[in-house]
Design a protein that fits this description.
The protein is α/β, with parallel strands linked by helices and about 220 residues long. Helix content is about 25%, strand content about 20%.
């Protein structure tokens, strides 16, 4: 699971400009980063009459289209947990930056107020820092042009906290299952201990396991 950080802010606060600069700095430092943007508008990917549109109209929940160097994937998400979606879509990233998603309480956030007055942090949960030209006493504040300082904060605070211990993630029906520390250690020890008896597992850094529980036929 990557470290998830939401950049939030009011309309025209400078979110996209800030995120682009932060992504470039993260890339310079060797981080693999992904971006997940929220929008309130329908996404106009399906042109009428095109194959992907016809498949969707036929009731297909998942449609993928592959070009020479890119893959597009269309899927009904219904009420899937946001963390579960990130887990599925960004398996190889160190960090995933969300643009928006201000009402997701469990995600650490950075308020962007490069072009407006800060203060969103007083109304929503989980804001850890603010990007603004104003001085703040409540939270760490970074100038909109000081992208290196923002990335330093991400590395030394948010990413460091995320990387503090080995990760064990369990999702049940696309919902993240909260796990206490001793449960994580127990699950990790059980799985890694079992897999040591198998070939090709030495030196593994990530183990993905999916269980699909079939209902027994009662007939």
């Amino acid at each position: 699971m990557p470290c998830i950080i939401a950049f939030v802010g009011r309309h025209n606060s400078g979110k996209t400009t800030t995120i682009l600069a932060v992504l470039k700095e993260l890339a310079k430092r060797g981080h693999a980063a992904g971006v997940f943007k929220s929008t309130h508008h329908e996404i106009p990917f399906h042109a009428p009459g095109k194959d992907t549109s016809l498949y969707r109209e036929a009731g297909v929940r998942c449609v993928a289209i592959k070009g020479p160097s890119e893959l597009a994937f269309f899927q009904d998400i219904n009420d899937e947990d946001l963390v579960a979606t990130v887990f599925r879509l960004f398996p190889h990233e160190d960090i995933v930056i969300l643009e928006g998603f201000k009402n997701v309480a469990a995600i650490p956030k950075i308020e962007v107020a490069a072009r407006c007055e800060p203060g969103l942090f007083r109304d929503i949960q989980g804001v850890k820092a603010v990007i603004t030209q104003r001085k703040l006493e409540e939270l760490p504040a970074f100038h909109p042009d000081d992208h290196e300082a923002v990335v330093n904060f991400i590395e030394n605070s948010l990413l460091a906290e995320h990387m503090r211990e080995d990760e064990v993630s369990i999702f049940i029906d696309n919902r993240a299952l909260p796990l206490k520390f001793f449960i994580k250690n127990a699950v990790k020890g059980m799985i890694t201990g079992f897999l040591k008896a198998l070939r090709s597992t030495e030196g593994a850094k990530r183990i993905d396991i999916r269980l699909i529980l079939r209902q027994p036929d009662k007939n």
